[in-house]
Design goal:
This protein is mainly alpha-helical. The protein contains 6 helices and 2 strands, in the order ααααββαα.
């Protein structure tokens, strides 16, 4: 067997291991979301994700939030209406076009998001401390990169 054939087999094997690891990560993320829900008695995890997206890109409009969350625009609109009714976000005229509406967190929404982020960070702090310094240095960039890769599968 030639060097190219060996390299091809090794690459295929590594790709399969990568796929298995990503699928395992997705499965654990699904289970973890369910376990985190009791921490959020006043908001669901999907609502928290939407609040985070509004904070990140709500000023760009529903389409940007949809792209950020990988949710359809009608789903974002529907969920946003519920969060608006709860006083967590508001629809305001866009800075560049007063006819267009964008989403912004209310003060209550900002406070809730900050509090829930702190809960999640506290919950994950033990996992973070269990990583070596080298693992910590690559963990965040790697997780962000994997998030992009997985989002491209959708």
């Amino acid at each position: 067997m030639g060097a190219d054939a060996v390299r091809s087999q090794l690459t295929a094997g590594a790709a399969e291991q990568f796929a298995d690891a990503v699928l395992a990560l997705l499965a654990v993320a699904r289970r973890t979301r369910g376990r985190l829900q009791p921490l959020f008695d006043d908001v669901t995890v999907p609502q928290l994700v939407l609040l985070d997206a509004v904070q990140a890109c709500g000023g760009e409009g529903i389409a940007a939030i949809s792209a950020y969350t990988l949710l359809s625009q009608p789903t974002v609109t529907q969920q946003a209406a519920g969060l608006e009714a709860a006083g967590l976000l508001s629809r305001v005229p866009a800075d560049d076009d007063r006819r267009r509406r964008v989403l912004r967190l209310t003060e209550r929404g900002e406070q809730l998001l900050a509090a829930k982020r702190a809960l999640v960070a506290n919950r994950l702090s033990a996992a973070w401390r269990s990583l070596t310094v080298e693992e910590q240095s690559i963990a965040v960039p790697m997780l962000r990169h994997l998030t992009v890769l997985v989002s491209e599968l959708a």
